[in-house]
Each structure stands twice: as structure tokens, then as C-alpha cells.
UniProtKB/TrEMBL annotation:
SUPFAM superfamilies attached to this UniProt entry: CheY-like, Nucleotide cyclase
Keyword Protease appears in the UniProt entry: no
Gene3D superfamilies linked: 3.30.70.270, 3.40.50.2300
Listed InterPro entries: CheY-like_superfamily, GGDEF_dom, Nucleotide_cyclase, Rev_trsase/Diguanyl_cyclase, Sig_transdc_resp-reg_receiver, WalR-like
Pfam families the record matches: GGDEF, Response_reg
GO biological process: regulation of DNA-templated transcription
Superkingdom of this protein's organism: Bacteria
Assigned GO CC terms: cytosol; protein-DNA complex
Name assigned to this protein: Response regulator
Keywords from the UniProt entry: DNA-binding, Phosphoprotein, Transcription, Transcription regulation, Two-component regulatory system
List of residues that carry 4-aspartylphosphate: D61
Domain Response regulatory: 12-128
């Protein structure tokens, strides 16, 4: 066996078969390849594993008492609608119609019994590669999301905020709609961090982020500019924006964190002059918002 095969990332492999000898055989091959073998004799036991562990691959017998392999696969695909896991069927039958039914049920591959250990090893190596690629993709997606969202507060970060603000600004200028913006910042955050510690100040920022996520006006653009400053911007008149801030001001005061925290809100009408001022703050050229 090659070094590349031996260094495949270990998977949690669920083997579902009513035959104890088959579970033992497949489990031995899995352990030989460095994977963790989890075994279940029926569909109910298999479903229970998904409440307890992360499963990377399922090997399931087609002919089982009670819920068969096809029915179990359909149940798993419905339960894991947003999470793809490879499923390989095991069966002594090789009819084309049966294989077609398995693929339609949500299966990915087929192994015929009696199981040939060499073929099983090859399938496991192939499925391990797919599992590794899936993990790497999910990791890359999570990393990309962390770049786009502020990792501390969960609201859009500066890069995304600029993109959305420019789009909103263009749309509203084109449609001749008023645009208003509220800038919030935490008064004396530097002193709060010095007195109570940075973790304490971070809790204030997280609280503000949650307030924005839960209460931002429909159709608004919001996010964290930097440090203690947040923005919420949407198509509305200045008076409406001021009324929204008056109505929601208390929600941004982080009272659950500390009683004497003060979050100041500045309400602006986004005319051209105000956008020039905002552009300086965001390091955005006003030329970027020109409308054809």
C-alpha cells in the first residue's frame, strides 16, 4: 500500500448491515486504512449516530429488515439537506434497475457482495479523497465568510460594507430617492478597554452588532467600519432616520454589558457633500459612485 494511501485523512465511516460478519469484515479494512469504523445493524441505530457524531461516509446494505438501505438513504438526504455525505450501497444483487434505484434514492456508489477487500480499499481511498476535498472546500468557504464578515460582531466588515453602500448609493441616486445614514460609536471605548480590559470592550461591540442584526431597517445596509464605529444606511428621509434612532437608541446601549456605556448616534442625510465626508472615512473615492 502506498504512503499516499496511508496518509489519507481519517474518516468516521458508518457501516450499516444486519450481518455481523459483514460489519466485522468491513470494519477490519477500515481500521487497516486508518479510518474509524462505526457499526449499526439497522436503520434506527444508524440514524442515532447522526445525533451523536460527525459521519464522513456511509456504507449501507440494501436488503435489511425494517427500513431498507434505499429508505435510509432518502431519510438521511432529507435530514442532512444542507450537508452532503457520500453513501455507498452494499448488495449481492447487480441488476441495472436496482443500481438506478439506489442512485435515485441519493446514493453515490455501489459495491457488490461478497465484498472484495481490494475493491473495498480502492473505494475507500476514492471516497476519502472526496471527503477531504469537501472538508477543504468548507474550510475555504468559512475562511472567506470570516473575511467578509467582522469576526468579532458577525456584521458585515468594511470591505462588504463599502460594496453594499456604493450599490445602495448608485441605486438611490438613479431613482432619485433620499438616503439617510446613522453612524454609531462607543464613547470612551479606549478608556473602557484600559479600565476593564479589552474583552470587556469587545462584549460591548458584540452587543451592538447583535442589536444591528436584530433591528436594522428592512432594505438597509449596515456593518462595522472599524474600531468602535458602525453604520446603518437605507433609503429614507432624514426625519425618518432620526425617528428610527430615537426609537431604537436604547437597544444599542449595551445595558447587558455595563450600565454606564454610552453609544452615540449621528444621523446624516446622504447628499453629495455628506457622501464626500463618508468617503474620507471609508477611504472610498467619490468618483466610484458616479452614475452613468
Amino acid at each position: 500500500m502506498s504512503d499516499a494511501t496511508l496518509t489519507q485523512r481519517a474518516m468516521n465511516v458508518l457501516v450499516v448491515d444486519d450481518s455481523k460478519s459483514m460489519r466485522h469484515l468491513i470494519g477490519a479494512v477500515l481500521r487497516e486504512l486508518g479510518h474509524r469504523a462505526l457499526t449499526a445493524r439497522d436503520a434506527d441505530a444508524a440514524l442515532q449516530y447522526f445525533s451523536e457524531k460527525r459521519i464522513d461516509l456511509v456504507l449501507v446494505d440494501v436488503e435489511m429488515p425494517g427500513m431498507d438501505g434505499f429508505e435510509l438513504t432518502r431519510a438521511l438526504r432529507e435530514r442532512l439537506a444542507n450537508d452532503w455525505i457520500p453513501i455507498v450501497f452494499l448488495s449481492s444483487r447487480q441488476e441495472a434497475e436496482l443500481i438506478e434505484r439506489g442512485i435515485e434514492a441519493g446514493g453515490d456508489d455501489y459495491l457488490t457482495k461478497p465484498i472484495n477487500p481490494t475493491v473495498l480499499r480502492a473505494k475507500l481511498v476514492a471516497m476519502s479523497r472526496i471527503s477531504n476535498m469537501r472538508r477543504d472546500l468548507l474550510s475555504a468557504q468559512a475562511q472567506l465568510a470570516s473575511y467578509r464578515n467582522d469576526p468579532l460582531t458577525g456584521v458585515p466588515g468594511k470591505t462588504v460594507l463599502i460594496e453594499k453602500l456604493l450599490r445602495l448609493w448608485r441605486d438611490c441616486r438613479r431613482d432619485d430617492q433620499p438616503v439617510s445614514l446613522i453612524r454609531t460609536d462607543v464613547m470612551e471605548l479606549e478608556q473602557i478597554n484600559h479600565t476593564n480590559g479589552v474583552d470587556y470592550g469587545d462584549r460591548i461591540l458584540v452587543s451592538i452588532g447583535h442589536a444591528l442584526i436584530d433591528n436594522a431597517p428592512e432594505g438597509s445596509v449596515y456593518g462595522r467600519i472599524d474600531g468602535d464605529e458602525f453604520i446603518v444606511c437605507w433609503p429614507c428621509a432624514l426625519d425618518d432616520a432620526q425617528q428610527w434612532w430615537d426609537d431604537h437608541h436604547d437597544l444599542f446601549q449595551a445595558r447587558d454589558v455595563m450600565a454606564d456605556c454610552e453609544v452615540k448616534g449621528t444621523v446624516l442625510s446622504m447628499n453629495a457633500e455628506q457622501f464626500d465626508s463618508l468617503s474620507d472615512l471609508l477611504d472610498v473615492s467619490a468618483a466610484q459612485v458616479s452614475v452613468a
